[in-house]
Amino acid sequence: MKLASFGRAAAVLSVASLALVACGEANNPGAENGDGNGNGEANGGAETSEVQGTLVGGGASSQEAAMTAWTNGFTSVAPEAQVNYASVGSGAGRDGFLGGEYDWAGSDSAMDDDEWEQSKEICGPDGAFHIPAYISPIAVAFNVEGIDDTLNLDGDTIGSIFAGEITTWDDEAIAEHNEDVDLPDTPITVVHRADDSGTTDNFTEYLEAAASTWEWEASDAWPADISAESAQQNSGVVDLTSQTNGAITYADASQIGGLNSVAVWVGNDYVEHNAEAASQAVASSTPVEGQASNNMAVELDRDTEEEGAYPIVLAAYNIFCNEYPDQETADLAVAFAEYLVSEDGQQTAESAAGNAPMSEDLRNTAMDAISEITVAE
């Protein structure tokens, strides 16, 4: 059976009250203190959702700060519900979702066609679908004593550094982009993710498209034949880079802390990572075809020359089933998914993680996609 929408008439979220309406007046005009579906007034008259139970998810560590804010915010509007999220990395999150361990997954890269076909086993004939609820730049972050500001680099130079071909910070290729910077001869230490990571997938997609010096295909696993240091998750590579003079890494921009970062050459200028530049890159992307009709996965233009766009960006997805086995899980999935993409949910995540909020058009498309969730008959 098709669920009633929590987005248009049923999940009305107020900035003032943070109220989630589980079933609106459009569905039950006579409901005031209760609507027969477990919803009523609370918090001084503000309606709150009374969906109950626990929703379990896992996946991308890039979303960790945003997910903490989301789960806390959702609990405030749905006090009888609990959402648990394990920050295990994108690959492990998708595996756990496909294996039935998680009700939904966070991932910095979309399922491939084989994974989507596999999702039909747990999500019904329409399989799973992606919502790009978390849009964030990936920073090329570094720690070099004597360099206390942003460095400028182009794609070829970034590719050569991470391939191990440029080995010191005073290399001519780096100096060419930073004429006014006194570059030390400090050796470069490349730090990459040890775990399968959507952040790695997005970063190597950029290198494959924008760096003629990069010879490897994009993957969520770092190329095994490149000698470099590694650590688990975004927090691990940031910690190791912070402790190593001369180190450079890639990580979700919201998690780099005090590390400096690179402005990337795009078109005719160097572009620093920021939410607006990341959102601009996603806006010019094209949809992935061949999966569920309500799928929102996109293919990003990594070698764009659009002015002001930052091409090293991830559109981190929350992956939900189109069909859940029971009403309670389906209700929780709908309520939580619509909270993620609501204006309040996006503002909550932006405050906590600095991501780029979804546009109104993207939010409306997401609400339509979520409304397609059903319960298995």
Automatic annotation (TrEMBL):
<feature type="compositionally biased region" description="Gly residues">
    <location>
        <begin position="33"/>
        <end position="43"/>
    </location>
</feature>
<keyword id="KW-0813">Transport</keyword>
<dbReference type="InterPro" id="IPR024370">
    <property type="entry name" value="PBP_domain"/>
</dbReference>
<feature type="signal peptide">
    <location>
        <begin position="1"/>
        <end position="21"/>
    </location>
</feature>
<feature type="region of interest" description="Disordered">
    <location>
        <begin position="29"/>
        <end position="58"/>
    </location>
</feature>
<dbReference type="GO" id="GO:0043190">
    <property type="term" value="C:ATP-binding cassette (ABC) transporter complex"/>
</dbReference>
<feature type="domain" description="PBP">
    <location>
        <begin position="46"/>
        <end position="343"/>
    </location>
</feature>
<keyword id="KW-0732">Signal</keyword>
<dbReference type="InterPro" id="IPR050962">
    <property type="entry name" value="Phosphate-bind_PstS"/>
</dbReference>
<keyword id="KW-0592">Phosphate transport</keyword>
<dbReference type="GO" id="GO:0035435">
    <property type="term" value="P:phosphate ion transmembrane transport"/>
</dbReference>
<dbReference type="GO" id="GO:0042301">
    <property type="term" value="F:phosphate ion binding"/>
</dbReference>
<dbReference type="InterPro" id="IPR005673">
    <property type="entry name" value="ABC_phos-bd_PstS"/>
</dbReference>
<comment type="similarity">
    <text>Belongs to the PstS family.</text>
</comment>
<protein>
    <recommendedName>
        <fullName>Phosphate-binding protein</fullName>
    </recommendedName>
</protein>
<dbReference type="Pfam" id="PF12849">
    <property type="entry name" value="PBP_like_2"/>
</dbReference>
